[in-house]
Amino acid sequence: MILTPIRRYGAMILMLLTLVFSSEVLAKTHTSTTNHKSHITKTSSKQVSSKEEYSRNSAKSSSLPDLRKYPSGTPRKKAFLRTVMPYITSQNAAITEERNWLISKQYQGQWSPAERARLQDIARRYKVKWSGNTRKIPWNTLLERVDIIPTSMVATMAAAESGWGTSKLARNNNNLFGMKCMKGRCPNAPGKVKGYSQFSSVQESVSAYVTNLNTHPAYASFRKSRAQLRKADQEITATAMIHKLKGYSTKGQSYNNYLFAMYQDNQRLIAAHM
């Protein structure tokens, strides 16, 4: 008889402990679930931000946008680099692919019709004379020309020549590099700057500039300097190549000094957009 109340009290205590423990487990489970949902929301938010950033960084418009709407200084520079950098990196990637293909074929004995046709196309675009004889391929000239222009150097020159994309020539002609057209070959389209090359897109302007440095006789010393760096197994950088560019401006060495100083001032900003 004495044990019955004790058993009852024990059962009641056990029930209370069970309820308390269950409440704690439920509370922890709810907190854990809430935190998991919060983590998912944050992840989703980051994914949206990444898409927005990609949208901003990709140059959707073929023509140069009006960058004067951005405040001068860093905001405008960033907008300019977001616009032009995809085209510069894409151009150099295409050149690298062709250069690697040439290197892989340099000691090849047999050439298929497709390979021969591709080689002829590369020689034509880079203005390299070749008879078509696969035993007499001008490899040195080809590899001297089919090579990249340092991305940072292209970006710096585009910024310098176009005033970070705000010059009339850049806005009206999509001409980022101050490239003139040959006499008798300048179209007089309304609203365009006369005497200078006109491009349908930023991509076309970048391609023309890179092709110009890689093919024009005036920049032969630039290409030879680049080839020497390759031979010495050294990296092709803006620091190494800016002072090697001769004849681009009538200002001579002072122009190269200006370009190099501009590159140094904006090096981190340019690197952040590569």
From TrEMBL:
Coiled-coil annotated spans: none
Regions of compositional bias (Low complexity) in chain numbering: 31-46
Region (Disordered): 31-74
GO MF assignments: amidase activity
InterPro entries per record: Bax-like, MGlyc_endo_b_GlcNAc-like_dom
Leader sequence residues: 1-27
Keywords in alphabetical order: Signal
UniProt protein name: Protein bax
Organism listed in the record: Escherichia coli
High-level lineage: Bacteria, Pseudomonadati, Pseudomonadota, Gammaproteobacteria, Enterobacterales
